[in-house]
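#lab-general

N.A. 3:47 PM
ok so I finally got the sequence cleaned up, no stray characters, all 207 residues accounted for. can someone with queue access submit it? mine expired

B.Y. 3:52 PM
send it over

N.A. 3:53 PM
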Amino acid sequence: MNVRYYLLIVFIAFLLCIGCVKEMDFDQAKDFEATPAFDASLIYFDFPALETGSRVMNVIDLPNDTPLEVLDDPQYADELESVEFTDTTRVGVFTESFFSDHLVEADVFYFFTNTTILDYDAVVYFLTDDDQVVYEVSFEVGAGSVESPAEVNFTDNFTSQELTNILNTTKIAISLEVLNSPGLASNSEGTLYFNSSGTFYFLVDAE
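B.Y. 4:20 PM
back already:
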C-alpha cells in the first residue's frame, strides 16, 4: 500500500474518532459531592461486680463498708429483686454546625460484655441539654462469667428525620437494672463492660 495513502486513511479515521467523542462539560465538576465518614467513640464504662454491689447498697441505704454478705439477709429480698441506677455522659459534638449542615446518615454501635453472674436490663437514652429524651434503646444482658463472657452487640441506623434525634443530643445516659443482686453475696467476680461508638456520614460539596 502507498505510504502516503495509508497515512491519509489513518488521519481521516482520527478525525472521525474526534467527532464521535462527547465534549467534556467541566462545569459539572462544580456539582461534585463527596460522602466522607467519621468514626467517633461516644461513651464507655465498666462496672466491676464489687462496684455494682456498692451501688446496690447505696440504693437500699446501707453504708458502703457493709459486707456483701448482708445482701443475703431475707429482709432485703424484696428490695433486691431489681435495683436500678443511671450514669450520664455529655457528648457535645452533635450540636456542631458541621453536623447539622452535612450529616446524612449515622450508625451507632452498642457493645456489652458481661463477666459477672448478674443479669441486667439496660436502657440507653439520648438526651437534650434539659434532659428531654429524644431517643432510647433497650437491651437484655444475660449473666456470664470470667471464663465465658456474655456479649450483646447491636447497631442503630439513623437516616432522614431520625437524624434529628442525633442532632438534638447533648448527653447520653445508660440506666442499668440489676435483676439478681443477691447473687453478689456469693460471687463478686467479673465486670460489666459497655462501649458505644458511631460512624457518621456527611454529604459535602466540593466547592
